Each structure stands twice: as structure tokens, then as C-alpha cells.
Amino acid sequence: MMRSLLPLSVALMGSLAVATPRDTLVYQVAAAVASVEPAQAVATYDVLPVQQMYEGLYLNNFGTYTPLLATGMTQSKDGKVSTFTLRKNVKFHDGTAMTCADVEYSLRRTFVVGSETSLAAQVRSTILGISGFTADVKKTFTFAKLASAVRCNAAGQVVLTLDRNVPSLLDALSQAYIVPRKTLVAGGDWSGTASDFAAFLGKDVANSVPAQKPVGTGAYQFVARDPSRFILKAFPGYWGGAPALKNVILQKVDSDTARVLALQKGDADIVIVPDRDTLAKLKGVAGVTIYESLPSRDLSTVVLFNQNVKNSALLPAGQLAEDNMPVNLFSDVHVRRGFAALFDAQIFTRDALRGFGVTKNTTLPPNNWADDKTLRPPAYSLKTAEAELRQAWGGKLWSTGFTIPIDFFAGSGLSEVVSGIFKQNIERLNPKFHVQVNTVELSAANAALLGGKLPVAALTWGGADPDTVLRGLYSAQGILAPATGIRDPKLEALLDQANNAVGQSARKPLYRTLLTYVNQQMYGFPLPQPLTWAATGSTLKGYQNFHRTNLLRTLSK
Fold first, then answer.
1. Residues 53, 36 contacting (CB under 8 angstroms)
2. 418 and 348 Cβ atoms separated by less than 8 Å
3. 116 pLDDT exceeds 50?
4. pTM of the full structure
5. For residues 350 and 63, what is the distance between their CA atoms, to the nearest angstrom?
């Protein structure tokens, strides 16, 4: 089979010397493709080819989950049992038909193989709650338990039976790729049985059969690779119809300048552009299309207030002074609301984002399905800020004053602008209010953040499921708990209620209640979301759809 593909690979490699053909996509990236084992790939330029060759049951279409190899799902009332109807007439690249046995094997394999840094480890952590195959885990996680968790029923459907409801199930399954069982087993991979189950638990599979000779169900199939190129061709048997672009070359080009020049000459269709200054130079260039305002995926920029700062240089809780601040300054809701009203989002967008930002309604990523567009972020108003801060600490804060240290990260223009806005507006509000701005290295700033030493912090947070984002930001058990010092039983109950509900339709109104409460308490507030950018050849169509899905089959010329 590979012998018949070699002439194509040679032709494609040779075609790089001239403008790209109409049926070929040349995508120049900044790093080489390493492992395309679907259970292992996590790096950006490994994930890109994997998603063209392999598919999961569902696709994460920018926060909306659409069926791929599944056509639908039903769940039990408690969310623990999920039944997936599989798409018919799906073929693997080797011509064999996809069966329920392949899907069963693939999901079980994802729950078994892969080092702790692999994609499979992330998927099984989400679905099974297994963070690592420790000695204790190995005692209870048996093949029999795995087989009962993932099985085909008599109707040819795949059934997942879990110990708990997993709200982010579809997102996790969108990263669990389906492989041909017989092909892998014949190549010496896990047999899918108890006989070698223990040997494959947590095994690094970066150099497995699918890593060397990828065979999936995707719109593109593997042709060849060398240290600087990874070549694909359209799969004629693709269930969704053959893609418009018949050939794809992912080409590693280290030099930013060389990539940009290739785009201008027509030798590349998409290139990685390093920054907006370079993008600006491409504006108006013949044969080039630039995208200045592309939305980001599953990320949210926020400001958080710390109600219990772990800094011995600050005053004890409850003590006020003009030349310092108490460790619990932000435990008063009026302080939090006052600081939020002091922040000028328009200035932030202008100075930090160069005008390329979008106002967010909540601290969820804008593409998140639970984001509520009817809610409003705090509005910039010195009048409101003064009214809130006059009430803070029973009126004593206004008459006593304070000095607050705010750090910004060296090399981070965003955090520098945040600290500058706070300093300017806090100090103009009351002559007894002072801000001490400090510059720190990023590593030190991260340690200070997670150590709970920062009174105010601007950061980027993210996740596909709203619970991942909001629990991480606000829960006393979340990873950022030391950075916020929040202890709020009502908030914890709202988080649990929304997370434990089954299905998006049941969860969404609960998240509206939760987000409304968070807005009232002002534990943090959303910053305008940075927009990203790209540059392509002007003949290329569909880039915005590719940006949403990461699927090259959405492109054409």
C-alpha cells in the first residue's frame, strides 16, 4: 500500500518550489510533527495531523459538540450510563469497515495506555477519575471493571457505564480517537483482553503502530513524512465526502521571515505569523488575506481578588493604615465592587490588546455553551467606585486609606496595563489611596499567585466545561483557591448543583444562577478577551471554519 503512495509524496515534495497547486494545501508551521499516536499527542503540531486522520464520537466545534462517528446519545437520569448510536458505513483508511468492536476497543485502549503526560491520561482522568496508575489504583482497576465500563450492546451501540455523572463527557470523548482493532492487535499493540492488560497500563505508546502507520477514519490519510514534512492525501472513502483539497503538506520552517516570504510568493497557503507587527506588514499585500479578529477557544482572561493574602509584610486581618493594607482587605464586598468599577476596560483593550479585544459578559470563555450573554460585566464608573469604597469597612477605609502592592509580570504587556489602570484610577479617587507597582519575573509571579501572596491578579484561565473553569477560579477546592481565599458554602453548593445536573439543558439555567451570584459577590471580573490573528493565501477559502474546528477538510480554493 505504501509503495503506491510514494510517487505522490515525491511529487508533492517537489511542488514546493513553485506556487501551490489548486488541489494542494501547504501549511507552514514553526515546529516538526513528532508523535501522531492518537492516545499520546498533546503538542499543537502533533494534534493538527492527528485530527485530520482520526475522529472521535463527537467534535468540539468551538464549544458546541456535534456528532462525528456517533449519530446520537442517550443518558440515564443519573447521567452514569451513556449509550451511543454509531454512524453506519464508516471505513478506515485500510478499507475495513468500522464496527462497534473497534469503538469498544479504542475507548478501552484510551483508558489503558499512555504515560501521565499523554492525551489518554487526560481523557481517563476526566471520565474515570484516574489521575495515575498507582499501586492502589492497579488493585481496583481491573480488566473486568474496564470491560463493564465500556461495552457493545446487542443493538451495536456503545454503552459507557460509569461510577458517576461526568458533565464534560462529550468534550473528553471528542479527544478519544477511534482506531482499527485488528490492525493494531496484528502489529503487536494491546490485544484488548485481560492477557496483556497489566503490561499496557500507562504504557508510553509514542512509537506504536498508529504512530508509525496511522490508520483512522478521518478525511485525510497518511502518505509520508520526513524531519521537516508531514504529507497527507484525501481519503476517497471518507463517510462525509472527499474534501476539496486533495493533498496536504505540513512543513516545518523555523524562520518567521522565511514563512512570511513563502506566503507572499504563493509557496504556502497558511503560515504561522509570530505577532501583530508582522501581520500588519502583510495587510494589503497582493495574494495574501489576513484575519485580525479571530476568537480564541476555551480561554478566559480575568482579574481575581484575594480575600486572605499570605504575605507577612501586610497588616493583620482587620487593621487599616494609609501606608499598608490588611491581608483580608478584599473580604469586604464593597472593596471588590469598588475595584471592579475602577477598571477601564476600553483603555485595557486599546493599550493591552491594540484594539483587538471583545467584551466578555462573564468569566467563562466566550465560546462556552454556559456563557450567559444577558449578564453584564462591571461598568467603569468612578462614581460607583467611590460609593462602594465609602461603604467599605464601615466607612473606615475611605477615611484611613491604604497602600496596595500590585505586581505585573516582566514581559507581559497585559498585566502591566492592568496594574497601570488600577494605579491611575485608585490614586485619583482618594489622596489616601496608594498603589505600589512591582515588576516580577513570570516564574516568581506564578509562584506568588499559587502561594496566595498576590492581593490582585490578572491571569488567563480556561477549560471546555463550565465546571472546570468556574470551580478552578472560585472553589475552595480549586487549583486557584490560595489565590482567592474564597470560603463561600453557598457558592460551593451552586457549583455542585450545576455540575451534577445531567445534560446541558438542565445545567444551563443553573449556571445562570451561579454566574449571577458570582457577579453580585464580585470575586473577580472578566477582562476583554484578546482576539487572535492569522494569514493565508488569498485563494484559500473557509479559514474561519477551520479556526473553529481545526479540520482541514473545511478548506478549499
1. yes
2. yes
3. yes
4. 0.85
5. 27
